[in-house]
Structure formats: C-alpha cells, structure tokens
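Hey, quick one: can you model this chain's 3D structure?
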Amino acid sequence: EPSAACEVCEGAEEMTEPLKQCTAWLHAYFCEPARTASLPVPAFHHPLLQRDSFTRQVLWTLLRDVKFGEAVSYKQLADLAGNGRAARAVGGAMRSNPIPIIIPCHRVIRSSGQTGNYGGGNLMKEWLLLHEKLQKEKLA
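Sure thing. Here's the predicted structure for all 140 residues.
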C-alpha cells in the first residue's frame, strides 16, 4: 500500500554496522525496491553460509542470480547451482535458509507454477511475490 509508512527502528545510531546494513537493505526492499540492487549485501556470518556445501552454493546462487521480481523453479535453481538432478536438495536448502527475504527463497516455486511451501507461511510467500511483481511493474 502506498499509504503504509516505512519506519526504521529507534536507536539506529546504537546499531552495529552489519545490523545497519540489514536495516537499510530491508527498508529498501519494502519501500524503495529499485535501491536494493545498489546496496551492499549485508555480511553473513551464519555457519551454514561459511562451510562448503551444496546448500551454501544454492543459497548464494539464488542471491546472486534470481533478481527482484523474478521466480525460478527448484529444478532451474538446481541447474544454476550446478546439479540439475538436485531439485529436492534445493528444497532442503530453502528450508534451512537462515536469512529469508535477503536470500530470497520466496522466489523459488514449483515447476507447475504453484508457489510451493515457505517457512513464513504460504500467504507470506504469495504476498512477497506479489509485492515484487507490483513494484517491478511500477518501475517498468
């Protein structure tokens, strides 16, 4: 909704730099989506993103290659990540994503076009996809 106010939490001056980056990125995502491409991706220190694994490869591929307003199937993401036969493993990677929205697992859908599951609930996934679609149309 255009009338919805975007607010940054009080006490922003007390936040650490990584938290400030996350706050700025999320603010841009919801309020000024065109800016997300120009903002640095916040530093991720979650152990899952540090060790070499297919899950890490899938999550970084998703972050890097599937842009705002786009969707990709589990199979397509498996192909992009280097193992086209690993669509089920991609589903597992989406379930273990430690930072949804920033690593946009909501953009991964079924080959049939159905949205599939989402840790935040299917209504949230549908809302996020619609938010991106509407914002992308505004920019076009």
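One thing worth noting: The chain is about 45% helix and 5% strand.
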